């Protein structure tokens, strides 16, 4: 019985969820960034440069995609026994990279090895972060293949748990090694790697359909929401009242019990599959066709990567992601330094870092649902929601720039939710613009915009202005002025999207009228044209703001 449960797609899903829960090392950079800065004698620009290589390693996943394709080629069998290859190969590579990268960082920080040059430390950070792409690719793509009929839900669950993983690791840190970031880096080297190696044999590809897939996937979705709510309550209680060490242990045990709950769903799904006959999607489709529905054959017009890169929409979307993802990841990378400059306590800063993962989860999990609802019920295109979220992100950046007491709480909430929404909206917009056949390659290529934007905003903007500000004040700056100019400029880069929302309101009403008339083709064309005009106008504004930024710096 146990062996039969272990050889099911639900057990593969459970194992993937557990691995995803340990992939938040990049989101916890703020915990060990201070000790990394002091032990290596870095200034803010150098620290931001190291963090950019973290973002590059965690977002450039083209290599992991190629390895996954090679490892799973001709290894997909109904019983999950795929011969020598399979997703486990990709997971093993990711585990090795994770241990190697974080162990070398820990050895550098503790003095176990000689202080490495900055380029070598950047390489260590890149290796550690690159493990995320291998582990995430293996889990997400295998889940998508195992649950092809409900791929959106499966991928949403995977992405959601990645968004929560940072908060989970912080709870582990505050229980096992509170106030000891050096030990936390060693923890990052051991826990994800060990867990991945232990459960990787369970992650397989099953090309069979089971009964009540949607019901059990909804159960996993509900569980993820419960875990997110639990983490948020614990973080808020810790920030307001504080918790003794024994209470931290209890909260961690409860969290581990919740994370073990997918096992119950896997067992229930296996039992239902035995009690009820398995359905065939092909038969269902044929019955629907013979009952009177006409079968529509849609011509595949998907673009490959080279064709997409020749399209203006590709580069406009890439530019928008530079602004949206880059500014968001730059905020979380500098949240500790911002908090220290505003005299936040370590407890408050750790709470902000933990809550960021909750807001990131809400953005990732919620944006897809809201965009679908707006598209089908109102006829509003997804680029409009993307423009709206970037407009809301502008308000968040201005709140952070204001420096009033407690400003980081509402500011980080708005920026965190809007940043997370980009990771949900960008893949769906990519599929609508370029088709689904080569979406994985195109999506991973556009994701490079995140580290590129992180470098522009973190190093060339935030780090540069910060180092100019602390001249004569030592290596640390205190006061609202330390980051004010940086976030005002970042807000400028996003503010144009608010005017774009108002500008396109007339276009949206036309789309609604077209959808009510059933003009689906006209609606799609109008959506693409609307996207093009919105993003082109945004690109013009970005150029204007960059020139304005240079003028301000020179003055």
From TrEMBL:
<feature type="transmembrane region" description="Helical">
    <location>
        <begin position="314"/>
        <end position="332"/>
    </location>
</feature>
<dbReference type="GO" id="GO:0016020">
    <property type="term" value="C:membrane"/>
</dbReference>
<feature type="transmembrane region" description="Helical">
    <location>
        <begin position="150"/>
        <end position="172"/>
    </location>
</feature>
<feature type="transmembrane region" description="Helical">
    <location>
        <begin position="408"/>
        <end position="429"/>
    </location>
</feature>
<feature type="transmembrane region" description="Helical">
    <location>
        <begin position="383"/>
        <end position="402"/>
    </location>
</feature>
<feature type="transmembrane region" description="Helical">
    <location>
        <begin position="12"/>
        <end position="36"/>
    </location>
</feature>
<dbReference type="InterPro" id="IPR010658">
    <property type="entry name" value="Nodulin-like"/>
</dbReference>
<feature type="transmembrane region" description="Helical">
    <location>
        <begin position="530"/>
        <end position="553"/>
    </location>
</feature>
<feature type="transmembrane region" description="Helical">
    <location>
        <begin position="486"/>
        <end position="510"/>
    </location>
</feature>
<dbReference type="Pfam" id="PF06813">
    <property type="entry name" value="Nodulin-like"/>
</dbReference>
<feature type="domain" description="Nodulin-like">
    <location>
        <begin position="9"/>
        <end position="267"/>
    </location>
</feature>
<feature type="transmembrane region" description="Helical">
    <location>
        <begin position="184"/>
        <end position="205"/>
    </location>
</feature>
<feature type="domain" description="NFD4 C-terminal">
    <location>
        <begin position="308"/>
        <end position="492"/>
    </location>
</feature>
<keyword id="KW-0812">Transmembrane</keyword>
<dbReference type="InterPro" id="IPR056555">
    <property type="entry name" value="NFD4_C"/>
</dbReference>
<dbReference type="Pfam" id="PF23262">
    <property type="entry name" value="NFD4_C"/>
</dbReference>
<keyword id="KW-1133">Transmembrane helix</keyword>
<feature type="transmembrane region" description="Helical">
    <location>
        <begin position="56"/>
        <end position="73"/>
    </location>
</feature>
<feature type="transmembrane region" description="Helical">
    <location>
        <begin position="246"/>
        <end position="267"/>
    </location>
</feature>
<protein>
    <submittedName>
        <fullName>Uncharacterized protein</fullName>
    </submittedName>
</protein>
<feature type="transmembrane region" description="Helical">
    <location>
        <begin position="217"/>
        <end position="240"/>
    </location>
</feature>
<feature type="transmembrane region" description="Helical">
    <location>
        <begin position="118"/>
        <end position="138"/>
    </location>
</feature>
<feature type="transmembrane region" description="Helical">
    <location>
        <begin position="441"/>
        <end position="466"/>
    </location>
</feature>
<dbReference type="InterPro" id="IPR036259">
    <property type="entry name" value="MFS_trans_sf"/>
</dbReference>
<keyword id="KW-0472">Membrane</keyword>
<feature type="transmembrane region" description="Helical">
    <location>
        <begin position="85"/>
        <end position="106"/>
    </location>
</feature>
